[in-house]
Amino acid sequence: MKRLVSLTLQGLVAVLPVALTIYLVYWLLVTLETMTGAALRAVLPGDWYFQGLGLISGLILLMLIGLLVNAYVVRHLLRLGDTLLSRIPLVKSVHGAIQDVLRAFSIANKQQADSVVMVTLGDNMRLLGFVTSREPSTRLRGAVDESVVGVYLPMSYQLGGYTVYLPASQLESVDLSVEEAMRIAVTGGIQNPKSI
Fold first, then answer.
1. Cα gap 133→107, rounded to integer Å
2. How far apart are CA 21 and CA 18, in angstroms?
3. What per-residue confidence (pLDDT) applies to 138?
4. Which of 36, 56, 106, 141 is 20 to 30 A from 116, comparing alpha carbons?
5. How far apart are CA 28 and CA 13, in angstroms?
6. 3-class secondary-structure state, position 33
7. Which of 81-90, 110-119, 149-158, 174-183 has the lowest mean pLDDT?
8. CA atoms within 13 A on the CB side of 6
């Protein structure tokens, strides 16, 4: 009986990541089709609309928005919108958290060569971290004369971590991409560079 349970769990571990990824992509595509399809059906004559037109239109719309974001006027309007949202008490917390998560993904996509570091504490403890800021504000540095670097130390299996400011001399650059290091951190070290 234990052997059957073990085999079932191994099968679940093998299938679950793929199944969840496929479901998430499917859900995103269906949601995009539903939202843009409803708007198109309200505007277009009934016989012009076909299944998938909403998805195609949604993807084209997202690409156009991506192009517009690079324009100065649109960036200025987006900054005004961010400023407005950051003044509304409850909304600013949610909006700020979403922006922080998206910034973290954009940091990961840049794949900076020296953004994954080891921080040594004491004689033996080493923590995996991510450089978030090379030149933090003087208000964060305080009276410290030495130049410090902002480093995010993630906690395993949680959406949390610590941001510490350390002298650059205490950091050791690691030959890992941000994605590889994040996998190691999130899985609590179960994923090591050899298995990635």
1. 11
2. 5
3. 64
4. 141
5. 23
6. helix
7. 110-119
8. 3
